[in-house]
Write a structure and sequence with these properties.
Layout lengths: L9 H18 L1 H7 L5 H24 L7 H15 L2 H15 L5 H22 L4 H7 L2 H37 L4 H15 L7 E5 L5 E6 L6 E9 L2 E10 L1 H36 L9 H16 L4 E9 L1 H8 L1 H18 L5 E6 L2 E7 L4 H15 L3 E3 L2 E3 L2 E8 L6 H17 L5 E4 L5 E4 L4 E3 L1
Helix pairs in contact: 1-3, 1-5, 1-8, 3-4, 4-5, 4-6, 5-6, 5-8, 6-8, 8-9, 8-10, 9-10, 12-13, 13-14
Pfam families: GGDEF (PF00990)
InterPro entries: DGC-Regulatory_Protein, GGDEF_dom, MFS_trans_sf, Nucleotide_cyclase, Rev_trsase/Diguanyl_cyclase
Keywords: Membrane, Transmembrane, Transmembrane helix
Length: about 450
């Protein structure tokens, strides 16, 4: 019963109103037939059955929002039977107009035209069987039936288009909010295909997908395989291709939603461009501009998380690296050579560490590496020695030959109170390496004394 209450949206409210009027007209004809008229008992009984059928059929069509075409002959037969039971062309005329006002709201133009023809055929047959002399006045006074069908169809079409437009506006608002609050391309792709499918209409059996330039599908909504047509909307901006939005639906769905889908494609591109900018800004915020290594902020984030894991038993070590004599290189050969030296050292760090390690530039000529999985001090020392050897290989910058030197401080996590404590120990060890003659690795033993690692020897300071 709740489905038969007045709905909130305009289109369904209009349908409900005309359904109510048609039902009243049809149902109230029953007591008129019973109380008088020229119809026989059998004709009245048949008319009562026709009334029950029409009420159930129209209510079913309203609930399902469609009236099957195969039911048109049954409707025509029911209307003709009701006309026979009434034996009154004026009452039949009113019934024809009221039924047309409701039925004109459902179906395509062809389906509405088919109902007009079959309804005319049924009611005219009923009038001919009961009162052939009234056929002329009936036809004259029913000339407005086709116009009423056109009018109600136009009402249905305009309200449906308005509701679809409102629905697309709501989708655009939701898409704008969703895209504006994420910088993940995969989230933008998922939002886009859901929105594209929604623009085809709530009852669409179509599908939508985002295809990347390499031909892979990034996101998909709906079920492929339904009959229909496919429309493609390129996703491009500033000569950069992000792929294309592919939408499959009926010809009518694609035609109605074409402009909205094209606007959606533009919104997708804007979201992807902004996501790229956000990724660039995020990279700049956490990476050194010159070398591309992690900066101090990102190093601290990784180190803080690594310390938490180390407290649960995961091995951890930190290296602090300071280039020896870097100021002299800058003063002697210029900043271009100094920058070349820093970039080269950064590249050597990347190549010397494992994928799980985090190399970073702290600023100036200072670097750091977070090493996870270092079981012992000897393990850490071996990695530090390998990094030192990689850094200190000769460099060639045009006519200038430079041989970098570095001092490395090593700290192994052993219940340190914080990341700062671990960094402080590595910093202390690094300065011990400088005091020991530079170009070496140092760590602190359990008593706090520095242990120096040269290329082929170890000494305790």
């Amino acid at each position: 019963m709740r489905r038969l209450l007045p709905p909130k949206d305009l289109g369904r409210r209009i349908q409900w109103l005309f359904l109510f009027m048609s039902l009243i007209n049809v149902v109230t004809s029953l007591p008129r037939m019973i109380s008088g008229g020229q119809a026989t008992t059998a004709q009245r009984a048949a008319a009562a059955v026709a009334i029950v059928f029409l009420v159930g059929w129209w209510v079913r069509g309203y609930r399902r929002q469609r009236v099957p075409v195969w039911g048109l002959p049954l409707e025509a037969l029911a209307l003709g039977t009701l006309a026979v039971g009434q034996h009154d062309y004026v009452a039949t005329l009113g019934m024809l107009f009221s039924s047309m006002s409701f039925r004109g709201l459902f179906g395509t133009w062809r389906q509405v035209a088919a109902f007009v023809v079959t309804a005319y055929a049924g009611t005219v047959s009923g009038v001919l069987l009961t009162a052939p002399g009234d056929l002329g006045p009936f036809l004259v006074q029913s000339m407005g039936v086709p116009a009423l069908a056109v009018f109600t169809s136009l009402v249905a079409l305009s309200t449906r288009r308005q509701e679809e437009s409102n629905a697309r506006e709501r989708i655009f608002a939701q898409v704008g909010t969703a895209i504006g609050t994420t910088s993940a391309p995969e989230d933008i792709h998922r939002t886009a295909v859901d929105a594209a499918l929604g623009m085809l209409g709530p009852d669409s059996a179509g599908w939508a997908a985002i295809q990347l330039p390499d031909g892979t599908t990034a996101a998909e909504a709906g079920v492929p395989g339904a009959a229909g047509q496919t429309a493609e909307f390129p996703l491009e901006a500033d000569k950069r291709r992000y792929g294309k939005l592919v939408v499959h639906g009926t010809r009518a769905e694609l035609r109605a939603a074409h402009n909205s889908l094209r606007a959606l494609a533009g919104q997708i591109v804007l979201g992807l461009v902004n996501a790229g900018h956000a990724a660039d800004l995020r990279h700049q915020a956490y990476h050194d501009a010159l070398t591309g290594l992690a900066n101090r902020a990102l190093l601290r984030e990784h180190l803080d998380r690594a310390v938490e894991r180390a407290r649960q038993g995961a091995p951890l070590a930190v290296l602090l690296i300071d280039l020896d004599g870097f100021k002299g290189v800058n003063d002697t050969h210029g900043h271009a050579t100094g920058d070349f030296l820093l970039v080269s050292v950064a590249q050597r760090l990347r190549e010397a560490v494992r994928g799980a390690d985090t190399p970073a530039r702290l600023g100036g000529d200072e670097f750091a590496v977070v090493l996870e999985g270092m079981l012992t001090a000897e393990d850490g020392s071996c990695v530090a020695d390998r990094i030192l050897a990689a850094i200190q290989a000769p460099l060639y910058s045009g006519p200038v030959d430079v041989t970098p030197r570095a001092s490395i401080g090593l700290a192994i996590f052993d219940g340190h109170a914080s990341s700062d404590a671990l960094l402080h120990e590595a910093d202390t060890a690094m300065y011990a390496a400088k005091r020991a003659g530079k170009g070496c690795v140092a760590r602190l033993d359990a008593t706090g004394r520095p242990v120096i690692h040269h290329a082929n020897s170890v000494s305790v300071g």
